[in-house]
Amino acid sequence: MKKTILLLFLFSSSALSYERIVSTVPSLSEILFVLGLEKKVVGVSRFCSFSKSFCNKTKVGTAIDLEYEKIVSLKADAIVLSAGTSKSSIKNLEKLKIPVIPFRHNSLYDVMTSIKDMGRIFSKEKEAKILIKKINSQFKNAKKIIKNKKVLFVIGSIIKDSKISNAHVAGSHTFYNDILNELNLQNIQSDSTTAYPQLGRERLLMSKADIIFEIFGSFNKDKIEQKRKSWHELFSHLNRKVKYIPLYGDFLFLPGPRVGEIASEISKKVSEAYVKAQ
Hints:
The chain is of the alpha/beta class. It is built from ten helices and 13 strands.
């Protein structure tokens, strides 16, 4: 870990100019894209999908399954990766004598810090400041209409026999938890010991959420309706109403430059569910 931190310090304080960048994490790739570094990025993760033109670049695997031969063939002079990348992968890259530049992207603070650091490292400080200002403005404008509602933020759920069987949800130390806090919404899994715990049906039944958010990569009417009915069945025994609010879009899964849009979308849907329903 100390070695990784030292590497980041050396590269962030140097005057080196990187011309052939490989990015192994979609959210970090999108930051590079928004900062105007598209032409300098030569390799991306196989999960890159936010832009057809950008993500059409050579695929180099993923952060946990790198294709080293491809990276060498691209003549990369910098590898952008997650600070959580395994030590073995980092050692393998160091053996190839390719500069490794790690970034954290778990929390909202991590995202903002990564944008600032990328701006400095890749000589895009002006663009980084503009992006940070935009995100801050999006959070400021996100309407905090409903305060202190208890929320369960679902990343994905499983249905068996028309009933919710289990769900992966956002816990503590996640950018989702930070976004909810900014909007004055209470994540009922904020005290979880894991970032994305899996909750079985029994634990879900005991939850005291006022709102269930569930995110999807795209809109699918039949799938959404099936999920809505299954979640309503789960809480049908309660003498209070639990609102189910689906959210759509690939950007919802990425702790990147569109975190402000995630906040705006959550705020908009909460407004529609409560204020307009009155």
